[in-house]
Amino acid sequence: MSKDREFLWRRLHSLLGVIPVGLFLMFHLSMNFTAVGGEQAYNNAIGKMDLIPHNLLLVIEWVVIYIPLLFHAFYGVFIAFTASPNTGRFSTYRNWMFSLQRFTGVFLVIFIAWHIFQTRIQKALGSEVEYNMIADIVSNPFMLGFYIVGIISATFHLSNGLWAFLVSWGITQSPQSQKVATYVTNIIFVILSVVGVAAILAFV
């Protein structure tokens, strides 16, 4: 019974990592990418979120973002520290992806918590989340580097997690379909990374 429960928890963890957490990441990156068009373009895009009634926005944030993210993060850390990667014995591409998935997952817990503190919590304390806030944050070279590493970690974690999701949910069962999925998810990783890094550099 415990193995059945663990199987279901892992399935749920995988699902939430793609829907809704993964979808939110893509939405978040696309919103940030508007900064490439300048300060006014970014502020206009972010300002549209203020059109949503505050109480409704809170419900959406907790149901769609925070609760799924918290479960995915904490259960992911549990998996990371209890999993047994085979990179020492079998240095295959997929085993290395397995280890990188766990490493980026633990790092992202720290990065996302800090990012929420610098933005969402500061907004709750009265600050305005707009172009100049992000520009001030990344004006520090250390923070800029931290954010770039965080963005690339997030895009890798999502794209590689999507590959694992397709396998664990039985969508890609044959070696050939898994190989195709590897190419597709790698392309997704590159595209999202370019969008994310270009977005953060637009604030510099």
Q: What structural class do helix, strand and pairing data support? A: mainly alpha
Mean pLDDT level: 92
Number of helices: 8
The helix/strand order is HHHHHHHH
- Low-pLDDT parts are none
The percent of residues in helical segments reads: over 70%
Strand percentage lies at under 5%
Sheet with most strands: none
Shape: globular
Give the distance, in angstroms, between the N- and C-terminal Cα atoms.
Answer: 53 Å
Radius of gyration: 18 Å
InterPro entries: Cytochrome_b-558 (IPR011138), SQR/QFR_C/D (IPR034804), Succ_DH_cyt_b558_Firmicute (IPR016002), SuccDH_FuR_B_TM-su (IPR000701)
Keywords: Heme, Iron, Membrane, Metal-binding, Transmembrane, Transmembrane helix
Organism: Lysinibacillus zambalensis
Subcellular location: Membrane
Write the layout of secondary structure elements.
Elements: H1 2-18, H2 21-33, H3 39-47, H4 54-82, H5 93-124, H6 131-138, H7 141-168, H8 175-201
Helix pairs in contact: 1-4, 1-7, 2-8, 4-5, 5-7, 7-8
What does this structure look like?
This protein is mainly α and 204 residues long. 80% of the residues lie in helices and 0% in strands. It is built from 8 helices and no strands. Helix 1 crosses helix 4, helix 2 runs parallel beside helix 8 and helix 5 packs across helix 7. The longest helix has 32 residues. It is globular. The N and C termini lie far apart (53 Å). The mean pLDDT is 92. It is found in: Membrane. Keywords: Heme, Iron, Membrane, Metal-binding, Transmembrane, Transmembrane helix. Its main location: membrane. It comes from Lysinibacillus zambalensis. InterPro entries: Cytochrome_b-558, SQR/QFR_C/D, Succ_DH_cyt_b558_Firmicute, SuccDH_FuR_B_TM-su.
